[in-house]
Design goal:
single chain, about 300 residues, mainly alpha, MetI-like fold, two-stranded antiparallel ribbon, 13 helices, about 70% helix, globular, transport, plasmid, membrane, UgpAE/MalFG_permease, MetI-like
Length: about 300
């Protein structure tokens, strides 16, 4: 009588087990990719493609209604050899440094005041946050309505009071025009700086401050040894955003000063606008845009490295 071999049920091999365990993970990864694809497509269409096209156009002589003629790096050579470009870049850098410093100091002081939980701080916070929601063009036109040399409210009021005989040209002097633009920008954007710094301050545990108070630390000691060191990531974000937005300044100077007096308030973006839409020199405008992009990239890298060393 033949005997049947006694064998147990076939065990799944390691490869089959790994295959079954990986399949749900692969399905989840594939599903996640589907959700991310629209965002990737938007970035590609709205950022990557225009950036690549700008770089390509910068190597051509290309007017708005003419042909594209390859000229290599002549547009970049023209920009480097142009004293007006360096003067514009210098002014943009000066504006960026001043606005960044003033915005950070004022925003930091307001954030400290708001987080102190004194009476009336919600109203105080709202007063500075509301201007953030309006655009730079709107804020610039409001400022122009107040300070315009012909129809400005200030000149009209001073004239009615008999304090002036002739209208004051608020934007006819570089120093005065520069100060007005800086003050307008600070008024419009300091609320955002305050909110960002305030969110970082609120993330610091109150137990740390209580422990410092038990050790006898005063207000300044807590600020310098606790608040500022723990706030460095937020400070880095604020500085990078402010520097980038300041280097891209256009609306306020286009509306308020129109680049004057004597071209002293022309920013790099304003120069790009003139090259593209007044001179119709798209190749040179693209080269200026690429240079500005490289400058912003280098500044961002330098800021990251400096702040990383400070954290270490």
């Amino acid at each position: 009588m033949a005997t049947m071999p006694l064998t147990g049920p076939e065990r799944p091999t390691a490869s089959r087990t790994r295959g079954r365990s990986r399949s749900p993970l692969r399905r989840r990864n594939r599903a996640g990719l589907y959700f991310v694809l629209p965002a990737i497509a938007l970035v590609a269409v709205l950022f990557v493609a225009p950036t690549v096209w700008t770089v390509v156009v910068s190597f051509f002589d290309y007017s708005l209604l003419g042909k594209m003629t390859f000229i290599g790096g002549e547009n970049y050579q023209r920009a480097v050899a142009d004293p007006g470009f360096w003067r514009t870049l210098g002014f943009t850098t000066l504006y960026t440094v001043v606005v960044t410093a003033v915005l950070f100091v004022v925003g930091f002081a307001l954030a400290l005041l708001v987080t102190s939980k004194r009476r009336g701080t919600p109203v105080f916070r709202t007063v500075f946050v509301v201007p953030v929601v309006i655009g730079f063009a709107t804020a610039s036109y409001i400022t122009l309505w107040i300070l315009d040399g012909r129809i400005g409210v200030i000149n009209a009021a001073l004239g009615d009071l008999g304090w002036i005989d002739d209208s004051i040209s608020w934007f006819g002097n570089f120093g005065l025009a520069f100060a007005i633009v800086v003050l307008m920008v600070v008024w419009k954007t300091v609320g955002l700086t305050m909110l960002l710094l305030m969110s970082g301050m609120n993330a610091i545990s109150a137990d740390i401050y209580e422990a410092a108070e038990l050790d006898g630390a005063g207000w300044w000691r807590k600020l310098s040894a606790i608040t500022i060191p723990l706030l460095k990531p937020t400070i880095a974000l604020v500085l990078i955003l402010t520097v980038i937005s300041s280097y891209l300044a256009f609306d306020q100077f286009f509306i308020l000063t129109q680049g004057g007096p004597d071209g002293s308030t022309v920013t790099v973006v304003y120069l790009i606008y003139r090259a593209a839409f007044i001179d119709f020199d798209l190749g040179y405008s693209a080269a200026l845009s690429v240079i500005l992009m490289v400058v912003l990239l280098l500044l961002t890298i330098v800021q990251f490295r400096v702040l990383r060393k400070a954290n270490d």
